[in-house]
Amino acid sequence: MPESIAFVTLHVRPCAQAVPLGSASVAASLPDDIKNRTVQVELFLDQDLGQMVAAVMRTGASLVALSIYVWSHRPMVALAAELRKRCPELIVVAGGPEVTAAPQTFRDTGLFDTLVCGEGEEVILQIVDAADRHNALEPLYRNSGPIDLLHQVSPWLDGSLVPGEGVLWEVSRGCPFRCSFCFDARGDHGVRTMAFSRLEQELALFVKHRVSQVWVLDSTFNYPAERGKKLLRLIKRVAPHLHFHLEAKIEFIDEELAQLLSEIHCSVQIGLQSANPDVVRHVHRHFDAELFQEKIALLHFAEVTYGIDLMYGLPGDDEAGMRHSLEFVLQLQPNHIDLFPLAVLPGTELYHQHSQYGLHAESEPPYRLLCSDSMTEDAMKHCRDLAVWTDVFYNTGRAMGYFLDVCQAVNQSGVAMIEAFGHWLLATRGMTTEVLADDTLASDQVVAWQKAFFHTWLAENGHENLAGAIDDLISFHACWAQAQLEEDVPQPDCTDLSEKVLVEQQSWRWVDQVRIQRFHYNINDWLLIDGDLVEQAEYGEQSGSMAVFFRSDNQAQCVTIDGIDASRFPTGADVPSYDALLLLGAVVDGDDYLHWLDQAVDYGLLSAAVPEAR
């Protein structure tokens, strides 16, 4: 028997989603005496080859099993080559989606003793047994059919994996649909589910370990619809405070499902891909604009956080079609929009149909489309630029709450406005699309860019009268979005105030969870007229205001500071005493301000400032 077995996974980057679930599931299927000899090796793309080799060699393993995905294909092959060079007697096995899709590609390298196509839980013991007996390994191992998930060992429950901040939660395998660009069904056009008792135990374990985020590995959790509802009821009962990331099929969303989603912490991703019925028909999908809008409205009404996926480069699609699809999605006001190019994945139906549609794609991972009969290389570049600008402006800039209001006020399409922002960014900030795509931008930075862009654009296009209102609208939604991400404000400390110290004599400090913002207009007007920009600009009170944003009882809150001159009130972390504010001219109505201050202290928004030692 091999002295030890190293299961190697290469992650994109260290993050909550970096969990070696695939290899751990295979390891968990082994008998205990062999399982105790296994070790999980986790690598990352930013490591050099020498670091990766050293990490594997330190295990002293005589059998190394590599899980290979699109992002890890090339570095894993390089790792296998270096391991083979340094340790010729080492048994090197490769499996995973890339191997399953194109086993001959890996066989031709001559680097692997054997390959695993498909699920590895039932064949791994055959490989280990052959190695134990020093028998020759078969060149390729493949299951005779889909494995029975009801009797598979959970890597979470058997201790192969220990829950951390985030977990990957596999609730099923397979897919009932057959989108020609996707490899998810893997020839098995059906869904196999995990035992419900197992799912309940795993959820309880996640709660015990105080997991914060759960990525549900099920490409269509709500099919059949009752299965999805049953899963949501389980989540609500066992782990209602964890945040779940789900993928859903729009056709199977109904009012009951939307309500169940609203009762847990979750975000839902909807795969649209294209708003052109003829385009999606090429890839065995269906699109009904009216039905899609009706289903999205259910999520809106239930206040469910959701995102929409779009794919550019599908057969028959062109640049104009991609712009149409994006405009359709922008009008729906999703919380997040993902735009990405078609990848012509080996093993998919579309891969075998590439000549039919003139698809020219990268020959190596990630297999992105370069051009097609309907999409030129220049068009693909323009689509990529628009995808990056949308991600920066709409997603990172958290523009969902205000963007349609602005576009309607200035009579511009959403796509045209995002393009204008992108061109402005490249021209004025010394940025390139490549840098924007690779850089990790802070939301506050993008919000500052949004304000500067609109200041310029409005002046150039005759809408200067809207500048203050749009600036306020951007600020409001940026602060509101940040408040939703914060922890609840803590309960006030009753010892903050001495009984002998009056509130007005005390200096204060905002608690960390609070964000304050100065506005051009009276922010209460926004709440009354629902953000109508033209009406706000024409009739709004331009006396200015100051508002406090925070979260309480898991809900974002906004309250204005009463009785002050917002232009003179300090915006820093410290709030001077009442007497000091009077000297600054920041108080215009003492009774109103002191009443507000009492409430803010009682609510825990302010804590007593501690005098600095002298």
UniProtKB/TrEMBL annotation:
All residue ranges annotated as the B12-binding domain in the record: 4-138
Protein keywords: Iron, Iron-sulfur, Metal-binding, S-adenosyl-L-methionine
Name of protein: Radical SAM
Domain Radical SAM core, residue spans: 161-391
GO molecular function: 4 iron, 4 sulfur cluster binding; catalytic activity; cobalamin binding; metal ion binding
GO cellular component, one term: cytosol
Keyword field contains Aminoacyl-tRNA synthetase: no
PANTHER family assigned: ANAEROBIC MAGNESIUM-PROTOPORPHYRIN IX MONOMETHYL ESTER CYCLASE-RELATED, SLR0320 PROTEIN
UniProt xrefs under Gene3D superfamilies: Cobalamin-binding domain, tm_1862 like domain
Swiss-Prot/TrEMBL cofactor(s): [4Fe-4S] cluster
